[in-house]
Write a structure and sequence with these properties.
Number of helices: 7
Number of strands: 0
Order of helices and strands: HHHHHHH
Radius of gyration: 16 Å
CATH class: Mainly Alpha
CATH superfamily: Ferritin, core subunit, four-helix bundle
Shape: globular
Number of domains: 1
Helix content: over 70%
Strand content: under 5%
CATH architecture: Up-down Bundle
Distance between the termini: 22 Å
Largest sheet: none
CATH topology: Ferritin
């Protein structure tokens, strides 16, 4: 369904299991950034009522996920560490088109967001199927479903609001680009790392 070029090697979970506190901290900050991204889309596109309504739903869900991750961290007697840089997301950000109309910029921002959600969904699936910790397996299976919903929402809005862009063609470009950079990741105990 996601169409990603490269699947995450299940052995990545072995790295994750070596430092659960790190993956949970990184995951918490990913949720915070996802909520901020949805709010940014609202800020720059406040005239698009349907988009604003759905982005507010996503922002709220992402904050709920942040709360859920924080609850897991506290329950396990761990500490939410400082915010981490997400080099994967930063590389994706560079691929976003900076020229064109406001509508073009919105569509590329939505595709950027869909790509992050697609990879997060895929990583959560790998975690849910391979992590030995049953509580975390269920936790990530449930979040995987939510991420898939966000992915389809972002992609659907990109299709709805496109003017002069062939969204399917541009999405394929995003898939190709992500496939070229993801080979550098999957070596750290972070959601995208």
């Amino acid at each position: 369904m996601l169409g990603l070029k490269l699947a995450t090697d299940p052995r990545w979970v072995n790295i994750v299991e070596s430092n659960i506190e790190e993956i949970l901290t990184d995951h918490a900050w990913c949720e915070q950034k996802a909520a901020s991204n949805a709010i940014s889309i609202v800020t720059y596109n406040s005239e698009l009522e349907e988009l604003v309504t759905e982005m507010l739903v996503i922002a709220r869900e992402e904050l709920e996920h942040l709360q859920m991750v924080h609850d897991v961290i506290k329950k396990r007697g761990l500490t939410l560490g400082r915010e981490r840089k997400d080099h994967y997301v930063n590389e994706l950000f560079k691929f976003m088109k900076k020229d064109g109309s406001r509508r073009d910029a919105l569509c590329d921002r939505l595709l950027f967001s869909a790509m992050i959600e697609a990879r997060s969904c895929e990583r959560f699936k790998v975690l849910s199927e391979n992590i030995k910790d049953e509580e975390l397996a269920k936790f990530y299976r449930d979040l995987m479903i939510s991420e898939a919903g966000h992915y389809t929402t972002f992609l659907g809005f990109a299709r709805k609001y496109q003017d002069n862009i062939d969204i399917d063609k541009r999405w394929k470009e995003w898939i190709e680009y992500e496939g070229s950079i993801i080979t550098n990741y999957g070596k750290n105990e972070t959601v995208h790392g």
